[in-house]
Amino acid sequence: MPWIDLEKRRRKEWLIIMKSLEEINAIRKETREKLDLRVNESANTNEKHILVCGGTGCTSSKSPRIIEKLNTLIKENNLNNVRVIQTGCFGLCAKGPIVIVRPEDVFYALVTPDDVEDIINIHIKENKIVERLLCKDIDETVVKKLDELNFYKKQERIALDNCGKIDPENIDEYIAFDGYKALEKCLFELNPDEVIKVISDSGLRGRGGAGFPTGKKWMFTKMAEGNQKYVVCNADEGDPGAFMDRSILEGTPHSVIEAMMIAGFAVGANKGYIYVRAEYPIAVKRFQKAIEQAKEYGILGKNIWETGFDFDLEIRLGAGAFVCGEETALLESIEGRRGQPRLKPPFPANSGLWGKPTLINNVETYANIPKIILNGAEWYSSIGTETSKGTKVFALGGNVNNIGLVEVPMGTTLREIVFDIGGGIPNGRKFKAAQTGGPSGGCLPEEHLDTPIDYESLGAIGSMMGSGGLIVMDDSKCMVNLAKFYLEFTVDESCGKCTPCRIGTKRMLEILQKICDGNGEEEDLEKLEKLALNIKKSSLCGLGQTAPNPVLSTLKYFREEYLAHIRDKKCPAGECKALANYQISPELCKGCGLCKRNCPVGAITGEVKGVHTIDPNKCIKCGACVAKCPFKAISK
After folding, report:
1. C-alpha distances out from residue 312 to 101, 238, 295, 298, 299, Å
2. DSSP H helical segments within 146-213, as ranges?
């Protein structure tokens, strides 16, 4: 297509090149042929691709230096048939930085910059595998390929499909893997009502936590009256330990752009905003680059593919306030005001951004849209359970071997995620609980390990799906202290607009602190429960309404720990310092003196090869002696 003069439309500010739909399809075909070795091990090519994880986790572990060194050695050795590709997150963060060499599909784990020379000299030049860098599974089995790991066997990647497969900063690679094909289908084959019907029939529900039917939300926005409508992406991911949305934006930003455009076409919006916290610099950078590339290709802008559909997209940065994950507080922040929730109704679908009808979905919800449009509603609804369709992405963390990002069909049990995918509990310890839904969720004990992960099942046992944080805890964790930790978070993050959340959560925290300090009374448990239920009923937004959940669930499933803190003045897990009483066992002490030398306050006395003792009046209960004792002679 020739240059198009946008002088009249853009007040003589700039020119862009718009490529026709035929050119986009030509790029798709040509680039896919070049990338066949990414998906086809038997591809007839002499070219090698070295894929290096460029997610935040691996970046912090020096993957940029690995990429830099690989490119330097490739240039020095004139290896013209070798390309280095920075990808998004592969998911298995516990084994990062990850490097995969294709077409052999060899999986190297825990790679350092010092390992690069061996990868080039042994694997690339000699065509031999660097055995010492191969990944070991939990059972110490050495695996050569990514899909041989137990971590991936029960996963089904839809939202994460392109993460680890393509260069997120190259639009041609996204196009090659059917990128923007769903948008093409919507603009040329479907009308807005038909698009919404596909989404409705698929059974997709919002992945931000509430699980509201996505198609219904789209229809409400389409039906709302207004000459201007907006599409908003909620990327304000604030749960402790959660990194699902961040990884999608880092690994496949164009899928979110494509989905927001499809949503805009369906509801009648021509403007979109993505609200992402500034704490995600890699995600922000890649998404901004993706926007610029889409504009250059004529995918974003005016009269897209000469269909008459206009859509533009902007990034808005958040300062990291947890409450801005609530949709109306997010809208307030985009408009330049303090992030505080609005009264509902009216709902954003009728009166949202600047009082106009606004559609809001989170990153993971949008990431499913292109796949649903391309593969059909029946395909998507065949995955998952009767009421919870499709897959769910979880950030698996805590006391579990395979920390990372997982995507599983709805209905997968907690046991399968923790033990089959997560590889179980490290250091031979026992599973104690799993926290789903972050600060808004609940702690589930071992008796609920076989609970299917879906909206209804989790709600029935006092927890919730949330955005997808899943923290695993072993038997060394104190559940009272854990409830206090989450309540500290919500107290700090409360916007203060409504009294139940602003004051009520603080009173709950004071009671929990009293119990952890050994000053609790049994009446405090009744007060906690009463306060919690009142806060749930009367808070203005979801933050306050769900803040008591960790307390209520731990009271329900771990009440004996609360009673031990109150009646026995003892923390069974030994985490609450005020209740700790460090003692040295005369039978186990060998008199090595390590504990004495490492005590920062001189609370330990004893002669070499003699039994040592701890002065409780001097001990500050820091735990240094426990950590240093090689004979496990010190208990608390």
Report:
1. 38, 26, 9, 11, 9
2. 150-153, 171-176, 181-189, 192-202
| 543 residue type, one letter | L
State the pTM of this model.
0.89
What are the distances in angstroms from CA 101 to CA 32, 166, 173, 270, 316? 18, 13, 17, 42, 37
Helix (H) or strand (E) holding 274: strand 271-277
User: What pLDDT is recorded for position 305?
Assistant: 86
- Give the number of C-alpha atoms closer than 13 A to the C-alpha of residue 87, restricted to the C-beta side: 24
Both tokens assigned to 356: 């106009």
Using DSSP's 3-state secondary structure scheme, residue 311 falls into strand
388: its two tokens: 């919870």
Order of strands across the sheet with 404-409?
A: 404-409, 391-398, 469-474, 431-436, 442-445
- Inter-helix orientation angle 253-267/214-223, to 10°: 50
Q: How far apart are the first and last CA of the chain?
A: 75
Give tens-digit pLDDT for 454-495. Answer: 988 888 888 888 778 899 999 999 999 999 999 999 999 889
The helices-and-strands tally (H runs, E runs) of the chain is: 27, 19
Residue 5 is which amino acid?
D
Q: Is the Cβ–Cβ distance between 52 and 66 less than 8 Å?
A: yes
Alpha helices in 424-522 (DSSP H): 455-460, 479-493, 499, 505-516
pLDDT digits (tens, 9 = 90+) for 284-331: 999 999 999 999 988 999 999 888 899 999 999 998 888 988 999 999
Containing 118, the helix (H) or strand (E) segment is helix 116-118
**Between β-strands 230-235 and 271-277, what pairing exists: parallel, antiparallel or unpaired?**
parallel
Residue 246: CB atoms within 10 Å: 25
Cα distance between residue 386 and residue 372, in whole Å:
17
Cβ-count burial of 578 within 10 angstroms (0-12 exposed, 13-18 middle, 19+ buried)?
Answer: middle
Closest CA to 512 of 474, 566, 435, 574: 566
